[in-house]
Amino acid sequence: EGPVLIAEAAAAGWEIEVEFVGPGAAEPSTSAPLEQLAPGVLERVASTERPQPNLAIVRTPSRAPTLDGAGFVMVTDRIADPGNLGTMLRSAEAAGVDAVVLTHGSVDPFNPKVVRASAGALFHVPVVTAELDDVRAAGLVLVGTSSHRGERHVDADWSGRIALVLGNEAHGLDDDIDVDRWVRIDHLGRAESLNVAMAATVLAFEAARQRTR
Asked: What does pTM read for this prediction?
């Protein structure tokens, strides 16, 4: 929904099957086949209360992405909130992450709230459905995240082929999860932990800083 997201999908090479425009649309977002919507239809079919006047049906890529050649991966383990996952995708794309892995039980990446929160990043960063064993089998070192254990994130070594693993909003990562090492973000205030999307952003950009210096 919205001309910006539709244009981002097209720019990333995703096929726009058809675009629908309602009253008030300035112009189509792409050169895809166009359908005009009568007044009142947009509000009944869109997922928001006050929808933007452009909607599109976008075909997902026929070839599923893989972790082949990926050097910097973000793993979201059972992330449940669509807004969090969308923000994590947005931060991952901005930090140069090669792929985002969703484990079983994670929210659907094509949930409309995820798509909106990603601000178009969903179309530019590969999203892979896999488990931690699959990530390790691809040759990546698993770096678990915690509010209280492991190295400080600014002291950790983020070089090499790594997978940053972030856990569910309510429970985090299981204590006995099979990761290679742990990192933490030190807190100065009283908060027990950061929101998972905020933590993902801090960690991804520290890793990117080290990997590009």
From this structure: 0.90
